């Protein structure tokens, strides 16, 4: 087989076979095929697309390029949730104990990564004592015992994706549905989940800014998942404004606690119930979405989800006392209000820019080496559609630095107050299931 022929074939819009896709992925992972030929193939895929079969074959080849996690010693159907990334997305912290409280095993492997705030692990580490440095055997033991545990990334998962993603980054081929879908799905599948719920975000703070693109990506990922034998569903949700009210690590833990007690923000609660009910159905603990949702609502109302969160924290060394007293979480030195400079209705809160503001405070990592400040971030008092009076606080800035002029300027630029009426964006745009 020759890489030249594969490039030519894809350039001319023909479909690649399983052997050809395997040849290209293995050869690239093993440094036998040079970047320039892979770049040409990626560009051909960008223009010519891939069939649903090709996408599934590409995903499987990437899964097979490295280690895979074996969760077969965990009883039950392991359902994982993946979000394409947003600002102030606190859902994992809530969903893990919530669905576990219904007996759904949650074996969460998570990274730290770059972003506006830390990842799930960083957020959880805001709880004093909580740690994810456990062995695979301990991890599996904890999920069997408590139905929920979190571990840091282990093993050499999908090395092909790592190489391809770096190459796409410098060859203008990131933005391709078959390449994005196979990249995300390969990582989920290698992590060992039996079933997958996807939260595909759309809007200013999302990777997919347009609803139509988000829908295409969701359909592509659902198709791949089901073709490779993992029951997969997707929700398309709004990320034009930040989710919930808190953006920041400890602040989001507090928000998760409130939500698990039934006192969380409306949008965050609704998204958790929507994603959670899909997880419960895929885990075969309920037959319909409606039934699953009712079960979840019940476990919030009767305190079981909240209790499950404490069990989860304690099992990994965390001080479960924070659940009853969130003031035990790291606190910022300065809490500064941002007053509205006019009266009216909030018409826009640009999610991405609010994420950047949180990062300027130190809530996220700019480079892999950056230190995160777990205490800092933003808490919104107003969301799109809320009315506000001049001088009233729009949000509280939690900071350890007192020089906030740049952050304040960024925030004022990213929030719009208008005199007229305002369309509040939908939270859930669509649900995508197997065709
Ligand atoms: N996230 C991924 O993991 N892969 C992509 O290709 C794009 C976003
Ligand atoms: Ca939030």
UniProtKB/TrEMBL annotation:
InterPro entries: Glycosyl_Trfase_fam3, Glycosyl_Trfase_fam3_N_dom, Glycosyl_Trfase_fam3_N_dom_sf, Nuc_phospho_transferase, PYNP-like_C_sf, PYNP_C, Pyrmidine_PPas_bac/euk, Pyrmidine_PPase_CS. One of its GO terms (molecular function) is uridine phosphorylase activity. It catalyses: uridine + phosphate = alpha-D-ribose 1-phosphate + uracil; 2'-deoxyuridine + phosphate = 2-deoxy-alpha-D-ribose 1-phosphate + uracil; thymidine + phosphate = 2-deoxy-alpha-D-ribose 1-phosphate + thymine. Gene3D superfamilies: Nucleoside phosphorylase/phosphoribosyltransferase catalytic domain, Pyrimidine nucleoside phosphorylase-like, C-terminal domain, Transferase, Pyrimidine Nucleoside Phosphorylase, Chain C. It is an enzyme of class 2 (transferase). Keywords: Glycosyltransferase, Metal-binding, Potassium, Transferase. GO terms for cellular component: cytosol. Belongs to the thymidine/pyrimidine-nucleoside phosphorylase family. Homodimer. This is Pyrimidine-nucleoside phosphorylase. It comes from Virgibacillus necropolis.
């Amino acid at each position: 087989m020759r890489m030249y022929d594969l490039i030519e074939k894809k350039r001319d819009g023909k479909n690649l076979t399983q052997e050809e896709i395997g040849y290209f992925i293995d050869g690239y992972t093993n440094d036998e095929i040079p970047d320039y030929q892979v770049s040409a193939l990626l560009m051909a895929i960008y223009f010519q697309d891939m069939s649903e079969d090709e996408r599934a074959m590409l995903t499987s080849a990437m899964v097979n390029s490295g280690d895979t996690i074996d969760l077969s010693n965990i009883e039950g159907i392991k359902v994982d949730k993946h979000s394409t990334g947003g600002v102030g997305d606190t859902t994992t912290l809530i969903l893990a104990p919530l669905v576990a409280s219904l007996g759904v095993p949650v074996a969460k492997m998570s990274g730290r990564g770059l972003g506006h705030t830390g990842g799930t692990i960083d957020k959880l580490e805001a709880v004093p004592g909580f740690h994810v440095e456990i062995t695979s055997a301990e991890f599996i033991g904890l999920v069997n015992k408590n139905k929920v545990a979190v571990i840091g990334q282990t093993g050499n998962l999908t090395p092909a994706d790592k190489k391809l993603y770096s190459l796409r980054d410098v060859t203008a081929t990131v933005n391709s549905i078959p390449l994005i879908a196979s990249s995300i799905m390969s990582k989920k599948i290698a992590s060992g989940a039996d079933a997958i719920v996807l939260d595909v975000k759309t809007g200013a703070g999302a990777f997919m800014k347009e609803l139509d693109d988000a829908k295409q990506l969701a359909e592509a990922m659902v198709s791949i998942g089901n073709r490779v034998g993992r029951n997969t569903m997707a929700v398309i949700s709004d990320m034009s404004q930040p989710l919930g009210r808190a953006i920041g690590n400890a602040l989001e833990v507090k928000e998760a606690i409130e939500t698990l007690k039934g006192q969380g923000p409306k949008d965050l609660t609704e998204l958790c119930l929507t994603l959670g009910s899909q997880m419960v159905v895929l885990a075969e603990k309920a037959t319909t979405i409606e039934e699953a949702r009712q079960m979840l609502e019940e476990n919030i109302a009767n305190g079981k989800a909240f209790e499950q969160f404490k069990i989860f924290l304690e099992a990994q060394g965390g001080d479960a006392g924070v659940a009853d007293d969130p003031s035990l979480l790291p606190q910022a030195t300065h809490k500064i209000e941002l007053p509205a400079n006019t009266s009216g209705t909030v018409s826009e809160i640009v999610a991405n820019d609010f994420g950047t503001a949180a990062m300027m405070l130190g809530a996220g990592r700019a480079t892999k080496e950056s230190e995160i400040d777990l205490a800092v971030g933003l808490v919104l008092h107003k969301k799109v559609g809320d009315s506000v009076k001049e001088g009233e606080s729009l949000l509280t800035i939690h900071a350890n630095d007192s020089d906030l002029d740049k952050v304040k300027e960024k925030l004022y630029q990213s929030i719009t107050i208008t005199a007229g009426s305002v369309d509040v964006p939908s939270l859930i745009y669509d649900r995508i299931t197997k065709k």
